[in-house]
Write a structure and sequence with these properties.
209 residues; Arp2/3 complex 21 kDa subunit ARPC3; globular
Length: 209
Amino acid sequence: MSAIPYMKVLRISILCLLAAAANYFLNTLSVHVLRIPLYLDTVFSAAVCFGAGLIPGLITALLSYIFWSIWEGGFTPFVICSMAEVVIIWRLKPAGGLQTGDPFNRAGSFIRLLGSLLLLYISAFLAISVLGGLVDFFYHSVFSVEKFYFSPEDTVKISLLRSGIHTLAMNILSRIPINVVDRFIVIFGGYFIAKGLSLCVEKTERIFR
């Protein structure tokens, strides 16, 4: 392996590790410190996928899950949701960024970018709500694995239980109010974090040229 590819792999590996740690600390801050019932453990996985591609994004999602499992003391199949979200981002992410120059070009590119991100956001929150509900249903209801932690959607489930709907429908519907908010933060936050880091890297490289 030549020096240039080796350094690139090393940089991406460090990026994935740092992003996974950031995912864990952001989620811990929101859930345990600020008491905000949202899933924010994939913001930096999304940023890595936007900025570096599919494989680094999947690695970041997997490392984030490993960090969570070690510190929280348990393993669950919900990592499938995090990895599926990375794939959705990779397939639907905007092809280009904001254009410079003519104001009309900038306005048009911003509208296209916003439309692409909104489509990605809607696809992500619907897909993750359904997939998360399916995993929850089979893992905790079908296979009867005891749940050892509290999840943001559990507060919504309490009201849905009174309506007598099927457990699978309850697991899916209870996630929609949560994912409507947190997937917006993940998709838009992840995109602009990636763009911000990219601009910082470009300016740093110009300074040291």
